[in-house]
Design goal:
- This protein is an alpha/beta fold.
- It has one domain: 3-Layer(aba) Sandwich (Rossmann fold), CATH 3.40.50.
- The chain contains twelve helices and twelve strands.
- It has an eight-stranded mixed sheet, with helices on both faces. Strands 2-1-4-5 form a four-stranded antiparallel sheet, covered by helices on one side.
- The chain starts with 16 loop residues before the first strand and ends in a 15-residue tail after the last helix.
Length: 348
């Protein structure tokens, strides 16, 4: 199990949606090919919950985070905040005030020419917060991440350790008093000795401020220890989602089962009967026809290369999986899924 441990949890089936995305897609054109980085993702993020988004590198996790905040152009779909569509200059400004993002690399996110004071103050300036509030808010945000303002306000990033830089990045996200933080691999660039400290800071803030958090990670054991719910992504799609307990202890999608088998998560049932994940993640310009996991799936059967599965209920408390093993009607009568031609890489 990872160092951070979540000690409280919200009811994953209760509560108002803070944000939701519906059929969100991001496509990148690469010469004559189209990379489907996100391909029709729908997801709800509830107030006060910790949601994990997990999957291999290249599956679309970071693209989803950027698209949710309007930092990435989308090919289709809708993003809502408190049920209202977050579009246009005004809508995006409100979205970015209420939802902040913490990036993977603290070495790249901080301006090396600015002191900590300016870095943490900048979001207040961008959002036109009254200047009379700046000093108090900045000092409070630094204190909330365990940094003495008197010691650190006038330092430059090169005078800070990696963990201290990430704390400053978190403080800059907190200074606007957001309702949610999207954390994109927030500890993967840090030394092991510092990771648990940063995770503890984030969880303490989440509990004290009732923040909603999204943890984007390739580490399933980290998601298990921190999150109320988990969404598993594969090649631009969510293939399974549910409570952390359901997804880890009773995974349904063969991809999730392989991930659980490969990492040291506790209490996962029947791990000895599952096969390890084989092969490489396909190129997103050549998404397999039918189920996109079928070339690597040890449980594939004839319909899997023809029918594109959708998320269906496979348990209680919102446990869903996109797998034909649990959808015999679709397996027998589903329409052929869109595929890619062998020559151009364009949608077939």
């Amino acid at each position: 199990m990872s160092d951070g441990v979540k000690t409280t949890a919200v009811d994953p089936s209760a509560g108002e949606d803070l944000m939701a995305v519906e059929d969100l897609s991001v496509h990148f054109r690469q010469r004559r090919k189209v990379a489907r980085a996100l391909d029709g993702v729908s997801l709800e993020w509830r107030r006060g919950e910790v949601l994990g988004v997990v999957g291999e590198s290249g599956c679309g996790k970071s693209t989803l985070a950027r698209a949710m905040l309007g930092l990435q152009e989308t090919a289709g779909g809708e993003v809502t905040l408190h049920g209202n569509e977050a579009t246009g200059k005004k809508g995006l400004a409100e979205l970015r005030r209420r939802i902040q993002m913490i990036f993977q690399d603290p070495y790249q996110t901080l301006n090396p020419r600015q002191r900590v004071r300016a870095i943490v103050t900048e979001p207040l300036i961008v959002q036109n917060v009254d200047r009379s509030e700046h000093t108090e808010r900045v000092r409070r945000a630094l204190g909330d991440v365990g940094m003495d303002p008197d010691r650190f306000l006038d330092r430059y990033p090169h005078q800070l350790s990696g963990g201290q830089r990430q704390r400053v990045a978190i403080a800059a996200a907190l200074v606007l008093e957001p309702e949610g933080l999207i954390c994109d691999e927030p500890v993967s660039m840090l030394d092991a000795s510092v990771r648990s400290q940063i995770l503890a800071v984030l969880l303490e803030l989440q509990q004290r401020r009732n923040l909603a958090l999204i943890f984007i990670t390739h580490d399933l054991s980290l998601a298990w220890s921190l999150c109320d719910r988990i969404a598993v992504m594969y090649l631009g799609r969510i293939v399974e989602q549910g409570t952390a307990v359901d997804v880890i202890e009773s995974p349904k999608h063969p991809y999730t089962q392989a991930l659980v088998t490969a990492v040291p998560v506790p209490t996962a049932k029947g791990r000895e009967d599952r096969e390890l994940l084989k092969g490489e993640l396909p190129d997103s310009t050549r998404v397999p026809a039918g189920c996109r996991f079928n070339p690597r799936c040890p449980r594939r059967f004839e319909p899997c290369d023809k029918v594109d599965p959708t998320l269906i209920d496979v348990g209680t408390s919102g446990h869903k999986a996109a797998c034909l093993l649990y959808d015999p009607a679709a397996a027998e009568g589903g329409a052929p899924a869109p595929g890619y031609s062998d020559t151009s890489g364009e949608p077939g």
